[in-house]
Design a protein that fits this description.
The complex is a heterodimer of chains A (452) and B (432).
Chain A lengths: L3 H8 L29 H9 L5 E6 L2 H5 L21 E2 L4 H6 L2 H15 L3 E6 L1 H6 L3 H12 L3 E4 L8 H15 L13 E5 L7 H12 L2 E6 L5 H4 L7 E5 L5 H11 L3 E4 L3 H16 L2 H29 L3 E5 L4 H11 L3 E6 L5 H11 L4 E3 L2 H12 L3 E4 L4 H6 L3 E4 L10 H17 L2 H5 L8
Parallel strand pairs in A: 1-2, 1-3, 3-4, 5-6, 5-7, 7-8, 9-10, 9-12, 10-11, 12-13
Helix pairs in contact in A: 2-8, 5-7, 8-11, 9-13, 9-18, 12-13, 12-14, 12-18, 13-18, 14-15
Chain B lengths: L13 E2 L6 H9 L5 E6 L2 H15 L6 E2 L4 H6 L3 H14 L7 E6 L1 H6 L3 H4 L7 E4 L8 H16 L7 E8 L6 H13 L3 E4 L25 H5 L4 E7 L4 H10 L4 E5 L5 H15 L5 H22 L2 E6 L1 H13 L3 E7 L14 E3 L2 H5 L7 E4 L2 H5 L7 E4 L17 H21 L2
Parallel strand pairs in B: 2-3, 2-4, 4-5, 6-7, 6-8, 8-9, 10-11, 10-13, 11-12, 13-14
Helix pairs in contact in B: 1-2, 1-7, 7-10, 12-16
The chains are: A alpha/beta (452), B alpha/beta (432).
């Protein structure tokens, strides 16, 4: 079971930069009835673990939890076995289980999965109903684990415990408690790192992993993009934890530092500057001059290659101005990418950003950039006053673009291509090229014959 | 493994499920009421998943709120606190938001703790409809039907008189917005003043307008729901909707109830049109007759391809029944009809195998199938079956566009559906 003490600890993560601004014991915001949007703790836990393709993810709960969530994320894997990330497994409990408990059903489901799918591990997720009726998931998983000799990991992140972010933290706890340190790697190198928090959505990781290989950085394990359960079990032997754009897993890396003396750094791979910066941070942390020299050579080569590839786009985008309205780290990471392409970002939204994100947005946009706190009402005026050519925002803002007859990109749409690393910048450039060329935004808003 | 049509489960879990939950059906039903604020009573994830699910299926913003029950309120609160706080918080944050109605629907969590969602209504000034939709019972289709029944029971005024040409349509869950519109239009052609409950044809039909509301955009109004019992005729389409029709009849025993299990294929539509003709003592409009002749032609044109083909079809019971009937009427062999949940109407399906199951079960029959008709989840699985075509129907369809405008109903929709499947079959059967 998950205890209140553990939740409190996770909600007051000392390593979080914004914790210092809060009163003692205040912790992260709790969801407010009526106003809470976004996923629950279960959602967060699932997102953090689901990319393990060699494990089966079994959701112990009623129909909504898995029925509406499976096969919704483009988390790519290179696993050559059966890809469980695009499959759904749920006990789909019924009234009977609510009354008499769902332990039996869970045990039989574990048997079924082991007999029919033989995964390397099973993650069993508790949900609101099975947590409330008090199923003894820990015991069922333990017995299953002993019976089949593979890790069967209980993940206690029922939705009602809190937000998606807390769920990711709880997933980290489950991995730390049940997997990390349970197996030794076949060999180690002085340049072994764990990648934490990149889920390889649309293959983001594959944009930068080839560079690691060239430099000689070895990814010992990943949590959890293109990850394997067998590898994360050896994560305690890494020299460095690298968090990629995921504050929620800071607790995991802090605890790994305490237990295994593995230092951690937090980086991002969006845009050219961030990617180069991230690589430098990693090699600096690994502290080997030879590695640093190789990294500089690889960065120089990759940047030069990118610069050449970007020349036609830079010409195309010269003088273009953009307004960006999106949340969280996208507020500066996409801004950074746009700037790398030679587009001036005149405004970005910080309505939902943390102080870190706001500082970073200010740094990237400079003094004259507008940090919008009420983007819905501000963006139209800013487009007028700056003569911006494109709006990058969620679908709700489409009308603003059409009214102003400027181009539009829906940044929240499910992407099919990656914007990560150096190569991702070219994908972003392609999308922008087509957005600028597309006459639809001017065409679609024409008045109807009966309105003229 | 042997599959048979029973209430009993044949395995302890679902692998690659096709079933969706009751509260999701409830959300969708409330979205067919103008300016309604669907409020899901549960932890925040249920509503978040539901929002994403329908947003991706319809490519439209989906207005659904939730009461974000926490581990503490799950134990201490009887429902009043979270529900009233949710409404208060929404109204204090968004002052210009004026819901016509609050559509409260429960989830597994709040049903397990046993909240009194009826009592809360006494403290709410806005019209309030509640429905108990635990997600450990039934499925999306029953959640939709329960919601329609709840709206009738709690909103509709009793009546004794009827307006002779007033008609109420009760469409089942799987009907897409355009399908509701086409059926309404046909009834209106017969001179009926027609209302659909719920009415997605004017709310999630994918039209473009300036403002994107924070409430349901279109649909039947609360006032119209209140006065539904003055209709002379109520038509339920899909067996799941029968009870809702009976609920309306209770409000006014003079209402005549007509029921159709589905409106796909020649037989069922002949029956439908025949009934409407009898009430109105009139001939159908020329275009309806024309579409019947086109369907006859489509049946003959497509019978060779479809008649020599084998099908696996998955979906909600009411959708499944219609599709199987249409395909059987032109000679197609249905290897397996896999339903999300149990329903008596499944007994009427003519297929080699009819059972309640998931895509893992359905997949056992893919080797024999020239075509699979299923939701989008079958697509990835079918990548390894090169001689099997796919037509996507049912919820969800995350990948294709224009789902809200796919019409399989009436003479017209059946015609297009036959051509669509025949054309897809041609690709796998003749292009080698």
């Amino acid at each position: 079971m998950v205890s209140r003490a553990k939740i409190k600890e996770l909600m007051n993560e000392s390593a979080c930069s914004h914790s210092k601004d809060k009163k003692p014991g205040e912790g992260c915001d709790k969801p407010k009835p009526g106003l809470a949007a976004g996923g629950c703790a279960f959602d967060g836990a699932q997102i953090s673990l689901f990319p393990y393709a060699d494990a089966v993810h079994l959701v112990h709960g009623p129909q909504t939890c898995l029925g509406a969530s499976w096969e919704t994320r483009e988390t790519k894997t290179s696993y050559t076995g059966r890809d469980h990330t695009q499959m759904g497994f749920t006990t789909g409990i019924t009234t009977n289980d609510v009354i008499f408990g769902g332990d039996k059903r869970l045990a039989s489901s574990i048997d079924y999965v082991m007999e029919n799918y033989k995964p390397e591990a099973i993650f069993v997720y508790s949900t609101c109903v099975t947590a409330l009726v008090g199923d003894d998931m820990d015991m069922t998983c333990k017995l299953g684990s002993e019976k089949y000799g593979v890790p069967i990991v209980p993940v206690h992140a029922a939705g009602f415990i809190g937000s998606k972010n807390l769920g990711s933290r709880l997933a980290g706890e489950a991995v730390l408690e049940h997997l990390i340190g349970t197996k030794e790697p076949e060999f180690t190198t002085p340049y072994d790192i764990n990648l934490i928090g990149d889920y390889n959505v649309t293959g983001d990781m594959w944009q930068y992993l080839p560079l690691f290989e060239k430099i000689g950085i070895r990814v010992l394990s990943s949590m959890s993009g293109d990850g394997r359960v067998g590898d994360i079990r050896t994560a305690h032997r890494a020299k460095l934890n690298v968090i990629v754009c995921a504050k929620s897993l800071i607790t995991l890396t802090r605890k790994m530092q305490e237990q295994y003396a593995i230092p951690w750094i937090s980086v991002s791979f969006y845009g050219k500057r961030d990617t180069s910066f991230a690589i430098r941070e990693i090699v600096t942390a690994l502290g080997c001059p030879e590695l640093t020299a190789r990294a500089e050579a690889v960065i120089a080569e990759a940047e030069a290659e990118l610069e050449t590839a970007l020349i036609p786009y830079r010409q195309m985008f010269a003088g273009k101005k953009a307004v960006l309205n999106t949340g969280g780290n996208k507020a500066w990471s996409i801004a950074s990418g746009l700037q790398d392409l030679g587009i001036e970002v005149v405004a970005t939204s910080v309505a939902k950003s943390t102080q870190d994100d706001i500082d970073k947005a200010r740094e990237y946009l400079g003094e004259n950039g507008v940090l919008m706190t009420k983007p819905a009402s501000e963006q139209g005026k800013i487009i007028d006053s700056t003569g911006a050519h494109i709006l990058l925002a969620g679908g709700r803002s489409l009308y603003t673009a059409i009214k102003k007859k400027i181009s539009f990109i829906d940044v929240n749409q499910e992407k099919k291509t990656s914007y990560g690393g150096y190569g991702g910048l070219l994908n972003l450039a392609e999308d922008l090229k087509y957005a600028f060329k597309n006459p639809v935004f001017a065409n679609v808003g024409k008045p109807a014959p009966w309105e003229v | 493994m042997e599959f048979s049509l029973t209430h009993k489960e044949h395995k302890p879990l679902q692998v690659n499920p096709i079933k969706h939950s009751q509260p999701m059906g409830a959300t969708l039903a409330f979205l067919g009421v103008k300016d309604c604020m669907p409020l899901m009573h549960g932890a925040q994830g249920c509503a978040s998943y539901t929002k994403v699910f329908f947003t991706r299926h319809f490519n439209e913003p989906i207005a659904v709120r939730n009461t974000s029950v926490s581990d503490i309120t799950a134990v201490l609160d009887g429902g009043d606190y979270s529900i009233l706080m949710a409404i208060e918080n929404i109204q204090s944050k968004e002052k210009n938001i004026k819901p016509s109605m609050i559509g409260l629907h429960t989830t597994g969590l709040t049903e397990t703790k046993g909240d009194d969602v009826r009592g809360v209504g006494m403290h709410i000034e806005i019209p309030y409809v509640f429905v108990n939709t635990p997600d450990y019972e039934g499925g999306m289709e029953s959640g939709w039907a329960l919601t329609v029944t709840a709206m009738i029971e709690q909103l509709t005024f009793s009546a004794t008189e009827v307006k002779p040409n007033k008609l109420v349509l009760l469409p089942h869950l799987s009907m897409q917005p355009i399908e509701v519109e086409k059926i309404k239009a046909l009834c209106e052609d017969f001179g009926f003043e027609t209302y659909a409950l719920p009415d997605l044809s004017t709310s999630l039909d994918g039209y473009w307008e300036e403002a994107q509301g924070k409430l349901s955009n279109g649909g039947i109004t609360v006032e119209e729901i209140r006065s539904l019992a003055t209709c002379a005729t109520v038509i339920s389409i899909g067996q799941s909707m029968k009870k809702s029709a009976l609920a309306l009849q209770k409000k006014n025993p003079s209402i005549e109830h007509l029921h159709f299990d589905h409106l796909m294929g020649l037989d069922s539509n002949d029956n439908f049109v025949d009934q409407l003709m009898k009430i109105r003592h009139t001939q159908p409009k020329p275009l309806i007759k024309r579409w019947r002749a086109r369907l006859q032609d489509a049946m003959l044109d497509s019978h060779f391809l479809i008649g020599s083909s084998h099908f696996v079809i998955t979906g909600e019971p009411d959708m499944l029944v219609g599709m199987c009937a249409l395909i059987r009427s032109v000679g197609g062999t249905i290897e397996a009809a896999v339903s999300t949940t149990f329903s008596d109407v499944l007994h009427t399906i003519e297929a080699e195998n009819v059972f309640v199951g998931d895509l893992e079960d359905a997949q056992r029959f893919f080797d024999k199938a020239d075509m699979v008709i299923s939701n989008f989840h079958a697509e990835r699985i079918l990548h390894s079956y090169h001689d099997t075509a796919l037509v996507i129907r049912g919820f969800p369809n995350y990948e294709e566009l224009g789902n809200q405008l796919k019409n399989d109903q009436l003479y017209e929709g059946s015609t297009y559906f036959l051509f669509e499947i025949a054309n897809h079959l041609r690709k796998v059967k003749h292009e080698h």
